[in-house]
Amino acid sequence: MPRELPNLDWLRVFASAAATESFSLAALDLHVTAGAVSQRIKALEAYLGVELFQRYAQGVRLTEAGQRYAQRVLPGLEQLIQATREVVAMDDAKSVRVTILPALAQLWLGPRIADFHKMHAGVTLEIWADPVLIDLRTSNFDFAIRYSRPPFPGCDHQPLLLDELVPVASPDLIKSAGLDTHGFPTDAPLMLDTYWSNDLDEWLRRTGRPRPAKLASQTFSLYSMVVEATLQGRGFMVGHTAVIGDHIRDGRLLPLFDERVATANQFHLLTKSAMPMSHTAQTFAEWVADQAASSGG
């Protein structure tokens, strides 16, 4: 006899696929591949011993068994999610969990956190810096700061920081190396990170400027390491103004050109739709938004 409950991840995928009757839309909703959705549905069907979807060349459709199962499973899964959120909020009212892109956490949010604690002593902040997108609806995070663009299924969102690309260098490098005929530091390498590795190509394409001849580059795993190397005068970088705006404003990094290019993705603050945050989480989210507004976001 099979276990009484199937894998919860299978059920989560089934719920999304059943709601849309589309593996591709479910994949977008869950931030996985359509193949991953298909594999989990097949695993659930094998566990149950019934076919939940009919497969066609143009898509999928729920079988009668799939429809009946969805009618019973979807409300129960939503109740489980809601109950978990309520218990977490009740037991952890003074704790706030946030998921955020590492670069923004290290270079923008981190330096400002002390000011929040001065005003709100006793609050425990859990800042999870991870480039991997997390399904906010089924997580125990209070809110997320995402570098992406709408739509955000199941989430309310608000723009947080305007992000633009502009090549920058330290004043010392500009002074010692000088600039070539195209405006780039002479014989200086381009500092890159693995997450934003195509920034220079995008900036050049959007501005119509030529690529520097014989351009060397150094690649780091973290954007904060790129910023540190650039501050030390070891090369130049393409700056994200939302992240290094403080460095530009105080003169530690200088724009090499006047042209700034808005990025396709932007920073947004996401909260779970129809799910009120705790008072503490709401206070922190409002403080983050205020900080963004005061820093030019």
Topology:
Elements: H1 8-20, H2 23-30, H3 34-48, E1 53-56, E2 59-62, H4 64-91, E3 95-100, H5 102-109, H6 113-119, E4 124-129, E5 143-148, E6 155-161, E7 164-169, H7 171-177, E8 190-193, H8 199-207, E9 217-220, H9 223-231, E10 236-240, H10 241-249, E11 254-255, E12 261-262, E13 266-272, H11 279-294
Parallel strand pairs: 3-4, 3-5, 8-9, 8-10
Antiparallel strand pairs: 1-2, 5-13, 6-13, 7-10, 7-11, 7-12
GO molecular function: DNA-binding transcription factor activity; sequence-specific DNA binding
Organism: Sphingomonas tagetis
Family: Belongs to the LysR transcriptional regulatory family.
Quick structural summary:
Helices cover 43% and strands 21% of the residues.
* N-to-C SSE string, H for helix and E for strand: HHHEEHEHHEEEEHEHEHEHEEEH
DSSP E strands, number: 13
Percent range for β-strand residues: 15-25%
How many domains would you count in the coordinates?
A: 3
Tell me the CATH topology of the largest domain.
D-Maltodextrin-Binding Protein, domain 2
Return the CATH class of the largest domain.
Answer: Alpha Beta
The CATH homologous superfamily of the largest domain is called Periplasmic binding protein-like II
Mass-distribution shape: globular
Output the number of helix runs.
Answer: 11
Uncertain runs with pLDDT below 50, 5 residues or more? none
GO molecular function, one term: DNA-binding transcription factor activity
Keywords: DNA-binding, Transcription, Transcription regulation
Domain HTH lysR-type: 6-63
InterPro entries: LysR-type_TF_proteobact-type, LysR_HTH_N, LysR_subst-bd, WH-like_DNA-bd_sf, WH_DNA-bd_sf
